[in-house]
Design brief:
By secondary structure, the protein is of the alpha/beta class. 37% of the residues lie in helices and 17% in strands. The protein contains 14 helices and twelve strands. The N and C termini lie far apart (58 Å).
């Protein structure tokens, strides 16, 4: 029958045919679930902490970021006959987490994005078994990439070693090689300090002195929280503050005795993402996220977004592979993902960490990216950030 006979223009008939084809493709698509696993009482998401907005800390749950990853992957997945749905999986607390994890396993959910403190990431890995692929989107602990690694566990958020390497590279490149270190009292502060010491030694930054700080209501300890008293020494180029909590570091910039930059937990901070990143599609990602979540995108959000995009990459090209086979593909470097940071990103074979550039940032913008120009590596310059293959303590094999 001719176009005249149908009473419809050719362009209109083509449009209807395309819409019908798209509807049929969607109807036949295989549906896969990504669960975002979190705690309702996670202390990292305490309302007061979220209001403070400490640099490098989360600003809210990761569900919106995961949903954005699914939205951004929809067209490519539809063409491959696949589709993703994001499932919120929130435990009331740590004691309720085993029940939730068992439910995910019973429901045969293959892909888990973990927004959990480091000890509970290990618990999730044990509960998941071999028939799931897990992505750590918020825990920086290097032990999860070392002695606590697992074949099916991948890390889209950078490790603490990666973050401190990025900072040390930048200081070395600027020739700010003398650092006064202010060290906090908690176990998390100690781990942060050890990571900083490793990075400083690696890139030739000298620690001129290490002084303890402490926030306390005891009048006898008042001097331990006084920025001017802690920074009276002159022979340093920067003040590096090791404060995992962020409360002391918040008060430090422009409060030191001498005019010195503050780096580490405030001032100049190494980050996985920044809401003012202006290259490689970053503004578009930030705008889409802000519209969806009604807040700026953080490094943890970016890590959840890129984790879901990784799942989409797997499903586009390897949907029929088992979870064990998909984990092997990720570690083999055959799966790439666009993280809006420039180079295409892949996972390290030895510990499951996502290779990625990192941002040296302050509150209003990005001043540099690491790896810095001139930093060299025999095979992949992104592997100058964090633990390289010869250094790894991870024994898990995919």
């Amino acid at each position: 029958m001719s176009a005249r006979a149908t009473g419809m223009p050719i362009a209109g008939r083509v449009g209807v045919a395309l819409a019908l084809s798209a509807w049929l493709a969607g109807a036949a698509a295989a549906t896969h679930t990504v669960a975002v696993v979190s705690l309702d009482d996670d202390p990292r998401h305490d309302p007061r902490r979220l209001e403070r907005g400490y640099p490098g800390h989360p600003r809210g749950p990761l569900l919106h970021a995961a949903q954005l990853g699914a939205n951004d992957s929809e067209v490519g997945l539809r063409a491959a006959g696949q589709q993703l749905q994001v499932r919120e999986a929130t435990a009331r607390g740590a004691s309720d987490l085993p029940r939730l994890l068992q439910q995910l396993r019973n429901d045969k959910v293959t892909y888990w994005v973990l927004d959990l403190p480091a000890p509970l990431v290990t618990q999730a890995v044990q509960a998941a078994g071999p028939n799931a692929v897990l992505f750590n989107a918020s825990a920086t602990a290097d032990a999860l990439r070392g002695t606590g690694c697992a074949a099916q566990l991948f890390h889209t958020h950078p490790s603490q070693h990666m973050l401190q390497d990025a900072l040390a590279q930048y200081l070395a490149a600027r020739n700010w090689r003398n650092a006064l270190v202010l060290q906090g009292p908690s176990a998390e502060d100690a781990a942060l300090g050890e990571s900083w010491q490793r990075a400083a030694k690696r890139y030739g930054v000298k620690v001129t002195a290490t002084k303890p700080f402490k926030l306390s209501g005891d009048p006898r300890e008042r001097d331990l929280a006084n920025p001017r008293l802690l920074t009276t020494d002159r022979n340093h180029d920067v003040v590096a503050v090791m404060d995992a909590d962020g409360e002391f570091a918040r008060t430090l910039p422009y409060a030191t005795q001498w005019p010195r930059p503050v780096v580490g937990a405030n001032g100049l901070v190494p980050l996985a993402w920044h809401p003012q990143w202006e290259r490689n599609g970053g503004p578009q990602v930030n705008r889409r996220f802000a519209k969806l979540a009604e807040r700026p995108m953080t490094g943890q959000d970016w890590a959840a977004w890129v984790a879901v995009k990784t799942v989409a990459s797997l499903l586009r090209d390897h949907a029929k592979a088992t979870p064990v086979e998909q984990a092997r593909l990720l570690r083999s470097g055959q799966v790439f993902v666009d993280g809006a940071k420039g180079p295409r990103l892949s996972y390290r074979a030895w510990d499951g960490q996502l290779r990625q550039p990192l941002f040296l940032s302050h509150v209003d913008g990005v001043v540099g990216t690491a790896p810095l120009d001139g930093v060299l590596h025999p095979t992949e310059v992104l592997d100058t950030l964090g633990v390289d293959e010869k250094e790894t303590a991870c024994k898990a094999k995919p």
